[in-house]
Design brief:
Radius of gyration: 18 Å
CATH topology of the largest domain: Jelly Rolls
Protein name: Crp/Fnr family transcriptional regulator
Number of strands: 12
Structural class: alpha+beta
Domain HTH crp-type: 151-225
Strand order of the largest sheet: 2-8-5-6
Largest sheet: 4 strands, antiparallel
Keywords: DNA-binding, Transcription, Transcription regulation
CATH superfamily of the largest domain: Jelly Rolls
Number of helices: 8
Strand content: 15-25%
Shape: globular
InterPro entries: cNMP-bd_dom, cNMP-bd_dom_sf, HTH_CRP, RmlC-like_jellyroll, WH-like_DNA-bd_sf, WH_DNA-bd_sf
CATH class of the largest domain: Mainly Beta
CATH architecture of the largest domain: Sandwich
Order of helices and strands: HHEEEEEEEEEHHHEHHEEH
Number of domains: 2
Helix content: 40-55%
Distance between the termini: 8 Å
Length: 249
């Protein structure tokens, strides 16, 4: 079975969901040289203007990506979970245009650029998986733009909850699924472009409508299809393909 305790296992799982990876492909990915970082809640994984020297792969926890406008306001423009590349589609070394901040305790692997580029040139399936990951990231960013551009508050928050569910349950959401919300209401406001007061009011309305049940930061979703319908949420194929025989440790 696959070496699930290997630090880079989340990367293998993510790329294996994008393209068919052989056991040799998986072993090659696990053999990539890397350095590991631990970042506590509120800490920065990457800061705007920082020169990034390697491919940052999130191994655990939840982060968000944000920018600061000229008037000092924070705009959250994306969420990240295990297996995500944090600097796509830019190839390091490059200067970061965003802040990536930890919402929970986070582990990040910094993979040598030359090593992962060489591997993608040697193995077409890995190159295809990385290209598909870039395409998925771009699609998610478009969805975020649409979400804050034209939808009313309930739909914006519903969309955010749907994405968090998909990151917590890679097999997909289902009736009765639950998540522990890693974001405060201030974070939700900055991610959806509405005020904190409106976030609180909308969450209470969604609870009264039976769309969610809340206990502190625990969110229970009784009817997954109803939530996705309101959010106009079309899940990307997070696990569209299954990897071949698992890598032996």
């Amino acid at each position: 079975m696959m070496a699930d305790n290997h630090a880079l296992a989340p990367l293998v799982e993510r790329l294996g969901a994008r393209a068919q990876l052989s056991a040799d492909d998986q072993r090659a990915l696990l053999a990539l040289p890397y350095q590991e970082r631990l970042v506590g809640p509120g800490g920065y994984v990457v800061e705007e203007g920082e020169l990034i020297m390697g491919w940052h792969v999130q191994l655990s926890g939840v982060t968000h990506r944000h920018r600061i406008s000229a008037d000092g306001l924070r705009h959250i423009v994306g969420m990240h979970g295990p297996g995500d590349f944090l600097n796509l589609p830019i190839t390091p070394p490059a200067t970061s245009e965003d802040f990536v901040q930890a919402l929970t305790r986070v582990r990040v692997a910094i993979v040598q650029t030359e090593a992962i580029l060489a591997l993608s040139q040697e193995r077409l399936s890995i190159l295809r998986a990385i290209c598909d990951e870039i395409a998925a990231d771009i699609s998610i960013y478009r969805a975020w733009i649409s979400n804050v551009g034209r939808r009313e508050a309930r739909a914006r928050i519903a969309y955010l909850l749907c994405e968090l569910v998909m990151r917590s349950h890679p097999g997909g959401g289902a009736d009765g699924c639950s998540i522990t919300l890693p974001m405060s209401q201030v974070d939700i406001a900055d991610a959806t472009g509405i005020t904190t007061v409106h976030v609180n009011r909308t969450l209470r309305a969604m609870q009264m409508q039976g769309l969610i049940r809340r206990h502190r930061r625990n969110i229970h979703i009784p009817d997954w299809r109803a939530l996705t319908r309101i959010a106009e949420f079309r899940p990307l194929p997070w696990t569209s393909r299954k990897v071949d025989d698992r890598v032996m440790p």
